[in-house]
Structures are given as C-alpha cells and as structure tokens.
C-alpha cells in the first residue's frame, strides 16, 4: 500500500491531522493499535482552547461541539481562604470551551469514516523504516500477516508509549522529565456541576478540581498519593475529600451521587527534542506530556497538528519544505511555554510531601500577587485560553 502521509496512532492528534490533510487533498492512512471502541472508552480532559475550537471548525467537524460545548469566560482559583476569579474575556477577549476529548475524538472518527478515510485498527508490531531517507515506510502486522505502507512522510501520533519517539536514535534524542510526587484521583458522576465555572482549589489537605462535561455530568479530581488505588476510595470517601478542599460556599451545595468512573493518573512533565527526525514528525503525547493542571495536553497536541499540517500542505502545494523543516523548532517553542504554565500551576496549587515552611510561604506570596495584580491575572488568562499559534 502507498499513501502520502502515514499516521501512526488514531487518538485526537492522528485523527485531526488526517482530517485537516484530507480537506486539502492530501492522502493519509491512520494505523491504530486498538479498536475504535477502546479509544472512545478512555476518559480524558475536556477544556478546548480557542485555537483548537477554530481548528475543529476548519476541519469541518464542529457541528456537535458548537451545539453542545459550553463556553467558559473565566475560572476560579481558590487557595485556603483566598478566592480569585480570573476573567478570560476581560483580559483576552477569548473563552475556552468545555467539550470532552472523548466526544471530540468520536466526531473526528465519524468525519473520517464519512469521507471513507483509511483507518486501520488492530495493528501490531508497527516499525518505522528508513525515516532518514527519501523513501520511508512503515511495516505492521494485522491478524498474523505482515503489511508494508510506503509514504512520503510519517506522523508519529502514537502517544507517550508509542513506537515513534523510540525510532529516533538515542544519539539524536534529548528527553527532559519531571515526575511529581502525587497523582490525581478522578471521578465522573451524573450530577449537576457544583459551579458554572471550573474551580481549581488548593487546601491544607491538598488540591482538588471541579470540572464538568455538561449540565448533568460532573468531573471532579482530588490530589492523592501515587501508591493509592481507586479501590481504596468509596464514593463517600471521595465526596468527603472533595468537600474539605473546595470553598465552603460550594461544598455546602455540592450534589453528590454514584461515581460512574474512578481512576488515578500520575502527574508528569516530559519533552522530547527534536520532534523531527528525517521524514518522521512527532505530534502530541508522543513528544510531550504535561501535568493536567492547566488543561494543556490535548491543546498542545492540537498546536503541533496545526504546524505540521501547514507544513505538509505547503509542501504538497508548492514543493517548498521551509515550513516542515521548521516544524520541530516552531512546535517546541510553544510546547515549552505550555510546559512552563502547567508546571507553574501544578507547583502553585498542590501540597508537596517535602514542602518546607519557606516553600509554603512562596506559594502564599504567589497567590497574593495573583489576587492583587490584574497584570498577573492577565498573564494567567493569556496562558489558559492558549498562546497564539
Ligand atoms: N501503533 C499504533 N498505534 C499506537 C501505537 C502503536 N505502536 N502505540 C500507541 N498507539 C495509539 C494508542 O492506542 C492511541 O489511540 O496511538 C494513540 C495515541 O493517542 P493519545 O495517547 O490520546 O495521544 P494524542 O493523540 O497525542 O492525544 C493528545 O494529549 O494529554 C493528552 O489527554 C490528552 O490524550 C490526549 C493527548
Ligand atoms: C477535566 O474536565 O477533565 C479537566 C479540566 C481541567 C483540567 C484538567 C481536567 O485542568
């Protein structure tokens, strides 16, 4: 089989790239290890920056998002007794949209299928070959038989545990990593959200986040030990922990109910440089991970897809390689800024096991500065709604 761009991984990065390229007349094949049902069973974050909302529109897949997504013009930061309302609209004239990543992925699958996009599920043993030549190809096994996909370019959109990043020689690759000494226990519950805006709350017993999917579906998180497991948490224990961490006025009106999903995610910051090797380009979680505190994971994947699709469109329209040659540097510049914001928010709002009295005072001073300084709030808002592409 031959295609112009072989895309490894059918998560949001791979699907959005495939859809944007298809609309510019560029042929792709998406190779996904799992089934569609498995991919759509994963519960992930749900905050879309204005730039990703625009990309969904450009990709022609925004109908349901525009009908069901909820625009948020601000957020609440709570730290002990301090509450700060950050008004995104006032500071940036932009909002974010609440729309689950699972729904966004479902819309992209439907669009690719409606356009007879070539999606191959259940592929094993994917290997990237000759990426540093002008004739790259990918081999894979499906139902016990081997296949070969020849292409002009390969997009590695196969997430943190994929093969693409590992295919860049160790002598070329530099990896930067920070592991945080806690995780997030997340639950989904069929209850109305406690507040119309998201609440990021830091208390003396740890961090909590109140988020939502829609008027009847809430998503909540509490900071937990890395060694913890969801089975240790009854629904009641979860609600009690949440109530102790959020402002009293919200705890008092929190509607609780059965938790329909409970899982623990570790927190990590990770960046791989460069994001290109020959004709292989890394996109999304394959190249970088952020802790979820700033909701930047999906959004940073989307900015990679933006730069890469533009570069590939330029190449297929004019034969020019300037934009794809600049891909890694351009994508990484924005990635590092999203890493910084996610690390900063994580450091500001969590209790660290080794935090001493000085560190604690620094958090308090930082929060007081954010509370009292409109410029600091503007900087927060600018980062949260998403830096320009
Ligand atoms: N071959 C084929 N597919 C693979 C392979 C492989 N060797 N390894 C992984 N995959 C698939 C996974 O099954 C998954 O569906 O690649 C896909 C990668 O998807 P994600 O992990 O969701 O990564 P990405 O598409 O970059 O999405 C951006 O940012 O912070 C996150 O939650 C956010 O998942 C979101 C991500
Ligand atoms: C979510 O809704 O799951 C969510 C929202 C904001 C975050 C992280 C996760 O920062």
Describe the protein's architecture and organization.
With 389 residues, the chain is an alpha+beta fold. The chain folds into two domains: 5-72 and 95-177 and 268-347, 3-Layer(bba) Sandwich (FAD/NAD(P)-binding domain), CATH 3.50.50; 180-267 and 349-385, D-Amino Acid Oxidase, Chain A, domain 2 (2-Layer Sandwich). The chain has 13 helices and 20 strands. The strands form four sheets. It has an eight-stranded mixed sheet. A six-stranded mixed sheet has the order 8-2-1-12-19-18, with helices on one face. Strands 3-7-4 form a three-stranded antiparallel sheet. Bound molecules: adenosine-5-diphosphoribose and P-hydroxybenzoic acid (PHB). Adenosine-5-diphosphoribose binds next to α1 and α9.
Q: Could you list the spans in which at least 5 consecutive residues all have pLDDT below 50?
A: none
The coarse silhouette is globular
Bound molecules: adenosine-5-diphosphoribose, P-hydroxybenzoic acid
CATH class of the largest domain: Alpha Beta
Helix tally equals: 13
Radius of gyration: 21 Å
Largest sheet: 8 strands, mixed
Largest beta sheet: what is the strand line-up?
A: 6-5-14-15-16-13-17-20
Per the CATH scheme, the topology name of the largest domain is FAD/NAD(P)-binding domain
Instruction: Give the helix level as a range of percent.
Output: 25-40%
Average residue-wise pLDDT? 97
User: From the 3D coordinates, which CATH architecture of the largest domain would you assign?
Assistant: 3-Layer(bba) Sandwich
As a percent range, the share of strand residues is 25-35%
């Amino acid at each position: 089989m031959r295609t112009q761009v072989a895309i490894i991984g059918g998560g949001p990065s791979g699907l959005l790239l495939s859809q944007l390229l298809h609309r510019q007349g560029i042929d792709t094949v998406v190779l996904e290890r799992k089934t569609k049902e498995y991919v759509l069973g994963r519960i992930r974050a749900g905050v879309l920056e204005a730039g990703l909302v625009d990309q969904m529109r450009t990709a022609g897949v925004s109908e349901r998002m525009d009908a069901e997504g909820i625009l948020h013009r601000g957020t609440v930061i709570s730290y002990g007794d301090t509450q700060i309302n950050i008004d995104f609209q006032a500071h940036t004239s932009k909002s974010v949209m609440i729309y689950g990543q699972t729904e966004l992925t479902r819309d992209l699958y439907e669009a690719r299928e409606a356009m007879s996009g070539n999606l191959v599920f259940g592929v094993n043993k994917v290997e990237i070959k000759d990426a540093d030549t002008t004739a790259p190809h990918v081999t894979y096994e499906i139902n016990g038989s081997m296949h070969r996909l020849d292409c002009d370019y390969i997009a590695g959109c196969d997430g943190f545990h994929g093969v693409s990043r590992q295919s860049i020689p160790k002598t070329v690759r530099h990896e930067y990593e920070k592991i945080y000494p806690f995780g997030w226990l997340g639950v989904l519950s069929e209850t109305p959200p406690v507040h119309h805006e998201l609440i990021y709350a830091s208390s003396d017993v740890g961090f909590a986040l109140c988020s939502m999917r829609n008027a009847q579906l809430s998503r909540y998180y509490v900071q937990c030990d890395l060694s913890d497991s969801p089975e240790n948490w009854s629904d009641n224990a979860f609600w009690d922990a949440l109530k102790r961490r959020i402002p009293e006025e919200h705890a008092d009106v929190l509607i609780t109910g059965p938790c329909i999903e409970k899982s623990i995610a570790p927190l990590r910051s990770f960046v791989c440089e460069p994001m290109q090797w020959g004709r292989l380009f890394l996109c999304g979680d394959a190249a970088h991970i952020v802790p979820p505190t700033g909701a930047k994971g999906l959004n940073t994947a989307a900015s990679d897809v933006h730069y890469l699709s533009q570069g590939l469109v330029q190449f297929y329209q004019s034969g020019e390689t300037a934009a794809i040659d600049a891909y890694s540097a351009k994508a990484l510049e924005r990635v590092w800024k999203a890493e910084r914001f996610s690390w900063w928010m994580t450091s500001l709002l969590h209790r660290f096991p080794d935090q001493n009295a000085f560190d604690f005072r620094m958090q308090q001073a930082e929060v007081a500065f954010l509370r009292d300084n409109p410029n600091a709030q503007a900087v927060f808002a600018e980062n949260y709604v998403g830096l320009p592409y």
